[in-house]
Amino acid sequence: MSSTNRTNSADRHKYDYYVTPQKPILQFLNCFSKYENVFKNPNTKILDCCCGGDELHEASYPVAIRNIYGNVDMDLYDIREDSKADFKEDYLLADTKDRYDVIITNPPFDLSYDIIKKALDDVKMGGFVIMLLRLNYFGGKVRSNLWKEHMPKYCFVHNKRISFTDNGKTDSIEYCHMIWQKGYNPEFTDLQVIIDE
Ligand SMILES: C[S@@+](CC[C@H](N)C(=O)[O-])C[C@H]1O[C@@H](n2cnc3c(N)ncnc32)[C@H](O)[C@@H]1O
Questions:
Q1: 112 CB under 6 A from ligand 1?
Q2: Are 129 and 123 in contact (CB under 8 A)?
Q3: In this structure, are strands 45-48 and 190-194 parallel, antiparallel, or unpaired?
């Protein structure tokens, strides 16, 4: 392994970089768009705040979104220099308030709570925050306040475990896309299972 690759591996670990495969993102987008028109609206402005990608991989969410909806208006942020971001910045420090109708990503797990809170603050009123998270994210005392203040509008659970590695291996964790709509705090979340056999 070259020293460059060694540095990249360390960076990946440090920034919790994993590549989300296209299939579950496309499945999610198609299901979600049966209920909300936001991706189909030509005026929608989208932010992927932790877009990922590297020399070997495209940024997963932007590619999937453009695959379905064409050349949408989208900004890409990521903290890594070798990412596919337009803005190589720490999202938590970025000035992105009230600019976007949708903020979508698979966030780094350790920063997910802070990223969700900032995205909910940043997104325009009525806009959507969409995050790929572990299904058991709903549990745990640490997030009680999040659910009290911001209950997701939808949760799309992927019944098939998602592999985040090039060798297709999975761990024993179920994932879901959680969707919040700013200004809307329902008593409970609508849940749908995306069935992939
Ligand atoms: C789990 S990976 C997901 C990458 C991509 N969204 C995907 O789904 O394939 C998390 C990404 O967040 C980036 N990241 C970590 N901390 C960040 C921060 N503070 N601001 C912006 N991006 C960050 C990492 O570099 C990495 O690309």
A1: no
A2: yes
A3: unpaired
Q: Give the closest residue (by CA) to ligand 1 atom 27.
A: 52
Give the global pTM. Answer: 0.95
* Gap from CA of 52 to ligand 1 centroid (Å): 5
All structural domains of the chain with their residue ranges: 19-194
pLDDT tens track for 40-95: 999 999 999 999 999 999 999 999 999 999 999 999 999 999 999 999 999 999 99
> What spacing in Å lies between the alpha carbon of 182 and ligand 1's midpoint?
23
Nearest-CA residue for ligand 1 atom 26 is 17
Nearest protein Cα to ligand 1, atom 18: 90
Sheet arrangement for strand 128-134: 87-88, 73-78, 45-48, 102-105, 128-134, 175-181, 154-158, 190-194
The token pair at 21 is 């495969």
Count CA within 13 A, CB hemisphere, residue 91: 31
pLDDT greater than 50 at residue 193:
yes
Residue nearest to atom 9 of ligand 1 (CA): 19
The architecture in CATH of the region 19-194 reads 3-Layer(aba) Sandwich (3.40)
